[in-house]
């Protein structure tokens, strides 16, 4: 999302999927853009357990950059050829209700400020948009029961929304080819992993891979057919993976399908097309009508 060519290719993929009858929902982050803005303001960027330590000042920047900048740029790209995308924050319509989240560092629970986990999802607004033929573009900011605004990791937000919507596929774009089996010793990518095995690996995963794989696990345990971790540095990674290109990223499958061979009829990834970016999908809506203004 920081490279214009890749961002455009991603937007084309989402529009192609929509034209093919898929109903994509895009959930975005913007860690690098937040870091750049914090830097400009002379504020620190610190991470613990893959999560940004979020002071009230940091939260203001996170909210502004995600909901005001990254989201609007993405919505603008998706809308170059029609009124397809509508942006909303997780705060809007109680889409993401958050609770304070702590980091786990060496078995210790550490307070990292206004970081949220998703406690509840209200899919009402997202479904309304899908029914109207739109592409919802959701920023990963949540609202607590008390009205407090929380910084939610984008993968966590995407996984929770995908599970609540009952999407067929959760696709997560990142800056590596997939989950490395023995990182940092080796860069061998895990092609396919079942939920139970992933659960065993999770405590040993470092950096941003922890929250990312946890989100995939929660999604497939929450009823999502399959979660795919894809290399977002490759143009059209999303469309390629969903069109069945071999050897793309890491596929997380529910326990019941872990032993099925990839591509078999029992395997949910053969259902193709159903997506997310950090995005998720659900079938073909009508084009939104446009009323010309005289
Ligand atoms: N086992 C692993 N496999 C792959 N990447 C890993 C692993 N453990 C840690 N990482 C790190 O996690 C990073 C991806 O997480 P993050 O930077 O949060 O991505 P994103 O911005 O896409 O959410 C990779 O660039 C890599 O440095
Ligand atoms: C709690 C937490 O870490 N929130 C993230 C939210 C954005 C995000 O997840 O962006 P990426 O997908 O680009 O990493 C952050 O502040 O960076």
UniProtKB/TrEMBL annotation:
Residues 285-294 have a biased composition (Pro residues). Substrate binds at residues 30-31, 52, 151. Residues 256-294 are annotated as: Disordered. It catalyses: N-acetyl-L-glutamate + ATP = N-acetyl-L-glutamyl 5-phosphate + ADP. Pfam families: AA_kinase (PF00696). Keywords: Amino-acid biosynthesis, Arginine biosynthesis, ATP-binding, Cytoplasm, Kinase, Nucleotide-binding, Transferase. One of its GO terms (biological process) is L-arginine biosynthetic process via ornithine. Belongs to the acetylglutamate kinase family. ArgB subfamily. This is Acetylglutamate kinase. It comes from Streptomyces apricus. The lineage of its organism: Bacteria, Bacillati, Actinomycetota, Actinomycetes, Kitasatosporales.
